[in-house]
Recover the amino acids of this structure.
């Protein structure tokens, strides 16, 4: 992977403006384009709560993208629910991705890979929550086999595994990583997040002593050469409550049309943010704090973001 010099300059100027001039603009934009899904995952707030199922309209999404561009956002994440289910009449997810790619430097999506991965996203993050038995226990019978098949058959070259650790799968961490490497060699790398205690799924969130143990295991796997993207600096940053202090770095739009800083969880209950487990945000936060090792690791992170 290599980083585009122009994009690196953009990020450098962004952080300089934020640190030295106090500019508070989002670096990354995300849109939860739908609350529909084709799974009922044990750890998912959409499955746990009676949330209205709805798609944003094409016009709503375009208005959100326009707003992001005015703010200087260059990286756009399309999320759900399951984003590949989204449509507005005959205008479908892949059409939306192609249009978004004309407006942003990079467009990414997060999917459960139950449907074929035929979209043209620059990055496709695929949720993997354990070895086959554990993944199916979290996501439903047969989910792992469908995902592995669709990963193998995907024409998209930019596939990344995304693990969310919780009490449901933390004991399976090493087996999960082994299966990813063995069963799905198409993945370029693996990222790890921690379950956030959204209403209805709080019981699955690891407490901080459990998170400490998990972080050391992740770092040990990384040191053994497994393709884990998370840096040790950022992983250890997530070991204290309320580590995430720069919500404005990310702007997120929800299916009800609301746009918030960060994920917006603190608007529901500030205590949710005490257990933030968003790994990419930890990487950015470590850079923001000026950690030299984190800045070095940023070259690797931004090279992934920029293909």
């Amino acid at each position: 992977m290599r980083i585009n010099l122009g994009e690196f300059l953009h990020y450098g100027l962004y952080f300089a403006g934020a640190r030295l001039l106090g500019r508070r603009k989002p670096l990354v934009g995300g849109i939860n384009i739908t609350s529909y899904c084709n799974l009922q995952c044990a750890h998912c707030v959409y499955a746990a709560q009676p949330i209205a199922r709805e798609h944003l309209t094409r016009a709503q999404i375009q208005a959100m993208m326009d707003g992001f561009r005015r703010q200087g956002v260059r990286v756009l994440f399309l999320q759900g629910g399951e984003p590949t289910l989204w449509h507005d009449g005959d205008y479908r997810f892949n059409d939306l991705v192609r249009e978004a790619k004309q407006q942003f430097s990079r467009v990414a999506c997060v999917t459960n890979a139950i449907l074929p991965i035929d979209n043209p996203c620059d990055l496709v993050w695929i949720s993997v929550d354990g070895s086959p038995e554990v993944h199916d226990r979290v996501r439903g019978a047969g989910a792992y086999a469908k995902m592995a098949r669709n990963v193998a058959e995907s024409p998209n070259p930019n596939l990344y595994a995304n693990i969310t650790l919780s009490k449901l799968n933390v004991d399976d961490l090493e087996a999960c990583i082994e299966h990813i490497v063995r069963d799905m060699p198409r993945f370029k790398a693996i990222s790890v997040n921690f379950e956030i205690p959204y209403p209805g799924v709080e019981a699955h969130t690891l407490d901080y002593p459990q998170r400490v143990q998990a972080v050391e295991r992740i770092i040990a796997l990384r040191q053994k050469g497994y393709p884990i993207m998370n840096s040790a600096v950022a992983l250890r940053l997530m070991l204290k409550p309320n580590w995430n202090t720069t919500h404005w770095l990310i702007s997120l739009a929800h299916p009800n049309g609301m746009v918030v800083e960060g994920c917006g969880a603190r608007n529901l209950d500030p205590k949710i943010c005490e257990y933030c487990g968003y790994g990419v945000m930890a990487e950015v936060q470590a850079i923001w704090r000026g950690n030299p090792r984190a800045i070095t690791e940023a070259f690797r992170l931004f090279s992934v973001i920029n293909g």
Q: What stands out?
A: The chain has a mean pLDDT of 88. The chain has one domain: 26-305. The beta strands are 28-32, 75-79, 87-88, 91-92, 106-111, 123-127, 159-165, 190-194, 250-253, 259-261.
